[in-house]
Structures are given as structure tokens and as C-alpha cells.
Amino acid sequence: MIPLGLEEISGLFTGLLVYGAMSIAALWLAMILWVYRDMRARSRDTLAHLIVALMVAVLTLPGLFIYLFLRPRETLAEAYERSLEEEALLQDIEERPVCPGCKQRVQDDWQVCPHCHTRLKKPCSHCGRMLELAWDLCPHCATSSSAYVTERPSILSSQEWYTPASDQWTASQRDGRRKAARRTEQLEFIEGDEP
Fold first, then answer.
1. Which residues pair with 15 in a beta bridge?
2. Cα–Cα distance between 41 and 21 in angstroms, integer?
């Protein structure tokens, strides 16, 4: 084995020292860049970006830990996605109608609430399309349907349900509905389905 001289040991030590200093400087710069970019993804405030980068540049590792403890929880992209989700949920809730009898969600094209049998809409006597209960004129075919106007929703029994695919109502059924609509003062519940 050849013994190393003092100059060779000094050169090796200097090389290791330079390598260590360069590694520490690169780590220091990487921390500053990472903190700056991370803060930029979490805030639109340019002053906050610079202050955080300066704090890490001066305090190094303690500055990085302080930043990690105090940084905003979510990025701007996550906050934007969350707001989109909330908006979509609110639209879904607002757009879906509810039954006036039982407050359950119903579809726009339903004639009767399946939960409490409250009448939600009425079919046009001419074209069969669904109309609001308060309408006295069909907007689709311009047929007057004033005989079916009721101020409050009523409950239909299973025998009174009308589907557009079935035959038109007979005159006696129509007269019976008119009389029932005039007598209806409040929601009627059938078959013991009171809420």
C-alpha cells in the first residue's frame, strides 16, 4: 500500500469540502424555489410569495418548517375544483322540484308523487302533455283546460291516474274530477298514507 502524502490528503479534503458546499447550496436553492412555487400554487398574493421565499433563504431549514406549518391547506386548483363541485351540488338541489305534500324530490314530468300520491301536474285533455295545475291553457296546443284548474294540489287514487298512453278520459270521469277538484280545500291522503 502506498502511503498518501500531505498534499494528496489536502486535495482530497478540499474536493470533498467543495462537493459538500455545492450540495448544500443546491439544496438551499431548491428549498427556496420549491417554497416559492408551492406558495404560488396556493395564493395569488405576489408579496406573500416573495416573503416566504425570503424567509426560507434567510432561515434555511427552520424557515422551511415554519412555511410547512403555516402554508394554506389547499392549492388554488383544489379550491377551484371544490367550488365547482359545490356549485354543481347546489344546482342539482335547486333544479329538482319537491312534492308540496311530503317534500320528497320529484321529477319534472311526474303527474303524481309516488311517495304520498299528491297530484303534481295534469295532462292536457287534447294533446296529453303535462301541465302545471294552475294553468288553464295548454301552451303546446292552445286548448283551454279551465275545467281542470285547482288552486291546491290534490291526491289521486290509483284508479284516477291518467297516462297519455291510455285512452282519453270518459265524460263521467271528467265530470267526477271536476267535482272533486272544486271540493278539494286541502291535500287529501288516500289509503291511510298520511305523513
1. none
2. 30
Contact 152, 120 (CB under 8 A): no
Q: How many Å apart are CA 159 and CA 191, to the nearest integer?
A: 12
Question: CA 140: distance to chain centroid?
Answer: 33
Q: What is the pLDDT of residue 101?
A: 83
Closest by Cα among 152, 118, 145, 147 to 130: 145
CA atoms within 13 A on the CB side of 79: 9
Q: What band does 170 get if pLDDT is binned at 50, 70 and 90? A: low
Q: How far is CA 150 from CA 31, 96, 111, 132, 179, in A?
A: 72, 23, 14, 10, 11
Mean pLDDT of all residues in the chain?
Answer: 77
Q: Within 13 Å, how many C-alpha atoms sit on residue 28's CB side?
A: 12
Separation CA 68–CA 27 (nearest Å): 17
Closest alpha carbon to 72 in 48, 98, 101 = 48
Amino acid identity, position 187: L
Contact predicate 195/159, CB 8 Å: no
